[in-house]
Amino acid sequence: MAAPSTILRRLRPISARGNLLARTYHSYDHPPPPGPFSTTESTILSASLPHIPSHGFTLTSLSLGAKDAGYIDASTNLFPQGPFALVHYHLLTQRLGLAQKKEVLEADEGIGAKVKKLTWERLMGNKEIVHRWQEALALMAQPSNVPTSLKELAAQSDEIWFLSGDISVDTSWYTKRASLSTIYAATELFMTTDKSPDYIDTREFLDRRFKDVQFVGGVVGSVSQWVGFTASAGLNVLRSKGVRV
Amino acid sequence: MSTSRTLNNAKNNGVHNDPYPNSSHIPRSASEALSRPAPRSKPLTQAQRDFLASALRVNQAGELAATLIYTAQTPVVVASHPHLRPLMKHMYDQEAGHFSTFNSLIAKHRVRPTAMYPVWTIAASALGWGTAIMGREAAMACTEAVETEIGTHYNDQVKWLLGMAEQMEASGEQLGDDIKGLISTIRRIRDEELEHLDHAVENDAKKAVPHELLTSFIRAGCRGAIWVSERV
């Protein structure tokens, strides 16, 4: 009896396990559930953000922030994951900030154009701390932090597609989010080494990545359309010959 | 017919107060979504959000399969029984309406669609085509089996949602339009599905050979698909 019940437990709804595919019901009548940080934690973390350009994603920034917010240095014990809390908070606030980019969201443009602009806005959210971002990437790549990092990346892609007005609910839901996540992660890494004025090189890199994805998507779309058309035409020819299919 | 009777007993005539008749009320843009009136009540619990997410996901998958089954059945069935054309079209049109209802609900509430989408597409088309080839009775037995499972499934969802509504009202919370709308939408769709069940039985579904084997096979498949779609 023990074995089947363990298996069943493992097959519980993915969303219930906080998996990175968790995209659970978004209510318009009820406030959103509480986020990962408490009020105190958020106060300390937001006070720490201004210290990141000079002190990096480190415990130093965190304790300076705690001091600024009026807490004792030891308050950094609130964050068992250490400096990664700063990275997580940065990712979270940048993601939620996307909904405030009114000039992009209210523009009279297509979904694709909005996705590109929002992605660019998000990259520019790293501008102040881009010289420290490799530290953050190292923290994100630590095994214990990988689930949170991936979840944030997935949530960000979901947010960008949703805010851009995309309402696709078939397999393209997955491919859209996956390709945007790849593009974003690659461009973000490219940006850490970009020394060009106003990040022109990053901009071009991003445009090229979007073009590649559009090309591949176009080919896949045409091929599947051709296969579908040929199959249904073949079936109709058989039917016209009186074959009962 | 015992299943059908118990289902009909639980019928409720909340059909006409659906605030979103076609559930086409998706916020057009993110800014519209954000400018919606501020929420008044407590956040939904994790269990409630999980239930709503998996309910919408499985319902969309089910309606996708239903439209595909009828799409695959119609040409074959109609070729040998032209008098069934209006019935097949009527049932297909209703299923297509349900499908678009759940599509817009899934997009609106940001629920992940099922990852098995391509699998259900192929399986449902194969099921529809396969039963249609076996003849009109088998095609109708397929409808009978599927709609019996789906009716029970929707009924369970309505029960769960009503329980949730009762709980929320007991604790003094206001029930949002979304949940009210969802309950009446699912009720309306359930009644339409059960109507299809009646049509199938009227059209000799019970005369399919081997009826028991065929329907229990399809019903088991349906339950399996529901179980999977609620999860992935």
From TrEMBL, chain A:
InterPro entries per record: COQ9_C, Ubiq_biosynth_COQ9
Pathway: Cofactor biosynthesis; ubiquinone biosynthesis
One Pfam family of this chain: COQ9
Keyword Cell division among record annotations: no
Domain COQ9 C-terminal: from-to ranges: 146-214
Gene Ontology cellular component list: mitochondrial inner membrane
Keywords: Lipid-binding, Mitochondrion, Transit peptide, Ubiquinone, Ubiquinone biosynthesis
Stretches assigned to coiled coil: none
GO biological process entries: ubiquinone biosynthetic process
Domain of life according to the entry: Eukaryota
Location(s) in or outside the cell: Mitochondrion
GO molecular function per UniProt: lipid binding
PANTHER family in the cross-refs: UBIQUINONE BIOSYNTHESIS PROTEIN COQ9, MITOCHONDRIAL
Family: Belongs to the COQ9 family.
Chain's role: Membrane-associated protein that warps the membrane surface to access and bind aromatic isoprenes with high specificity, including ubiquinone (CoQ) isoprene intermediates and presents them directly to Coq7, therefore facilitating the Coq7-mediated hydroxylase step. Participates in the biosynthesis of coenzyme Q, also named ubiquinone, an essential lipid-soluble electron transporter for aerobic cellular respiration.
The protein's name in its UniProt record: Ubiquinone biosynthesis protein
Species in which this protein is naturally found: Mollisia scopiformis (Conifer needle endophyte fungus)
TrEMBL record, chain B:
EC number(s) reported in the record: 1.14.99.60
Cofactor(s) required, per the database record: Fe cation
Domain of life (superkingdom): Eukaryota
EC top class named in words: oxidoreductase
Annotated stretches, region: Disordered: 1-42
GO biological process assignments: ubiquinone biosynthetic process
Keyword Iron appears in the UniProt entry: yes
Name of one Pfam family that matches: COQ7
Family classification: Belongs to the COQ7 family.
Binding-site positions, Fe cation 2: 95, 147, 193, 196
Pathway in which the depicted protein is active: Cofactor biosynthesis; ubiquinone biosynthesis
Predominant cellular place of this UniProt entry's protein: mitochondrion
GO molecular function terms noted in the UniProt entry: 3-demethoxyubiquinol 3-hydroxylase activity; 3-demethoxyubiquinone 3-hydroxylase (NADH) activity; metal ion binding
Record bears the keyword Calcium: no
Quaternary organization: Component of a multi-subunit COQ enzyme complex, composed of at least COQ3, COQ4, COQ5, COQ6, COQ7 and COQ9.
Keywords: Iron, Membrane, Metal-binding, Mitochondrion, Mitochondrion inner membrane, Monooxygenase, Oxidoreductase, Ubiquinone, Ubiquinone biosynthesis
Organism from which the protein derives: Mollisia scopiformis (Conifer needle endophyte fungus)
Cofactor info, note text: Binds 2 iron ions per subunit.
A Gene Ontology term for the protein's cellular component: extrinsic component of mitochondrial inner membrane
Membrane topology listed for this record: Peripheral membrane protein
Catalytic activity: a 5-methoxy-2-methyl-3-(all-trans-polyprenyl)benzene-1,4-diol + AH2 + O2 = a 3-demethylubiquinol + A + H2O
Function: Catalyzes the hydroxylation of 2-polyprenyl-3-methyl-6-methoxy-1,4-benzoquinol (DMQH2) during ubiquinone biosynthesis. Has also a structural role in the COQ enzyme complex, stabilizing other COQ polypeptides.
PANTHER family recorded: 5-DEMETHOXYUBIQUINONE HYDROXYLASE, MITOCHONDRIAL, COENZYME Q10 BIOSYNTHESIS PROTEIN 7
Localization per record: Mitochondrion inner membrane
Biased composition (Polar residues): 1-26
Organism lineage: Eukaryota, Fungi, Dikarya, Ascomycota, Pezizomycotina
Residues reported in the UniProt entry to bind Fe cation 1: 63, 95, 98, 193
Protein name: 5-demethoxyubiquinone hydroxylase, mitochondrial
